[in-house]
Design a protein that fits this description.
alpha+beta; 10 strands; about 160 residues; ten-stranded mixed beta sheet; 3 helices; elongated; Immunoglobulin-like
Amino acid sequence: MKKSTILCTCAVFFTLLISGLAAYSQFEPEPPSLMLFIDDHPVKMKPGTYSLEKWGRAAISDTPSDPAAIVREYNSIVVSNLNHLSFKFDEEPQSVKYYLWEMATGKLECKGFEKKQLKLMDTNVPQGEYALEVRATWESGYVFYHARISIETDN
């Protein structure tokens, strides 16, 4: 009776071990999600380039380096220069920077602001179409998120 209990316990243990190893071999870290809030209206931002490592497993995605090219096919999010933009990650990053790239020229219009909340009027960015790029870093790696916004002036 004792031998059969030990054999059953060993069989269950090895089955769980094999199942765990199979799941681990297929595990790939996913980028944390990012929500852009325009005043109180949420918009999910899409991750682009990233490099992440978790539990000894790595995941890498490389997109074109021009943010305006990345978001060219995205639907534009219309915002007023009076709107407040805020950002919420499901995992808080160690550092984060935000950039606005002019869509027509690809020129960097607003460089590296780091506030959690941004009032577009304070940036002096003119009316127009922009690629919004968010660069976030964690201990496990980094992710670049993108959205296309259209800024309208409401003075």
